């Protein structure tokens, strides 16, 4: 090859590489329409933006993007925008109907839940009809009330809270899980060690497993292999009566595996994304998510396959923390939803499902939510003297006044310092808000 030919080949190769680099990779979302934010749709925990050129395919009553009801299945493909939203090139919406194995899964998980309630304990079934107790199962009391309050605040608006049951299992380990029939279980150990923000991130993850039908979807993938192995076949959405027993046995088997081993990696990652959205919409501080994963890793170790929702068939905690940090950067530029936790309409929430109230200001304090931007954000007692934290104060001034915070979390230009009664939010190194 001549020197000129080599030079031309190099130029062409460089041009091809540059073209490959400039090609924008499409992303997709696959979930349910759970919130609207102006002209944005929230699907799969992501903000989806549409435009006139977006190709839309819908089933009644979703005749247009604007008419898609909450809870409809939505799939979209598009490109990520500078603000983190996904600009949809195409979008499809259809009713969330009854899918393969859905009725079977609900029936069998209902039966399992009834067995645990009758026994008053959660247990594993062993060979020979024996059982192994995981812990006493509580249906009422302060711990259940706390879990119930958080769960109700996390539910997206299309889910009826009266259809969701919440239990606490007396066990010191950090664990929580959900079944396909919207029964939610949390261990007392994780409740004792996490604050409400952290527990909301955990329970949001578990609710997402139920709302996005991960039990059924996992069964669908695994069951056909197992059913084929025992000679069971089906042509459509239902399993005929003669095969019900085989299906029931497999559901029991996979149900036990799901609570102890979790779901597939894709489903666990989706539960992280969607659960984070649930916690955000309910007003919890989601910036604690990555740090929470690190706490799990410190407690159990990166590679330890403890029977725990955190580990399951999931990315290592370091990768999981990075994934959550990416989600926060893409979808939550403010880090945590501003203002008090939203009130719920009585048409979609029961009286027992009021969201957690924001803590009132301490004596002598002014809430950042009600105070003027030029007035004091809050005050703190130091050596008996009243001192005020004001917008624009530097981090060093706050540290001099309040001392070292319990936690410091950096998020881009923002950072949050957590003290026992409140958190101070900085942007560009200066105070912008105090959260109680």
Could you write a compact summary of the structure shown?
With 436 residues, the protein is an alpha+beta fold.
Q: Your description of this structure?
A:
The chain has helices spanning 3-22, 102-119, 142-154, 188-193, 196-211, 214-229, 244-261, 265-281, 289-300, 317-331, 395-402, and strands at residues 27-37, 40-43, 46-49, 55-58, 73-80, 86-94, 121-125, 131-138, 165-169, 176-178, 183-187, 378-382, 385-389, 407-411, 414-418, 423-427, 430-435. The strands form four sheets. A five-stranded mixed β-barrel has the order 1-2-3-6-5. The chain folds into three domains: 27-94, Beta Barrel (OB fold (Dihydrolipoamide Acetyltransferase, E2P)), CATH 2.40.50; 102-331, no CATH class; 378-435, no CATH class. It is α+β, with helices and mostly antiparallel strands and 436 residues long.
Overall 3D shape: flat
**Which structural class should the secondary elements be placed in?**
alpha+beta
Number of domains: 3
Mean pLDDT: 75
Strands, total number? 17
Q: Count of helices?
A: 11
- Cross-sheet strand order for the largest sheet: 1-2-3-6-5
Helical residue percent? 25-40%
SSE pattern: HEEEEEEHEEHEEEHHHHHHHEEHEEEE
- Over all CA atoms, what is the radius of gyration? 25 Å
Low-confidence stretches: 2-21, 234-238, 304-314, 339-386
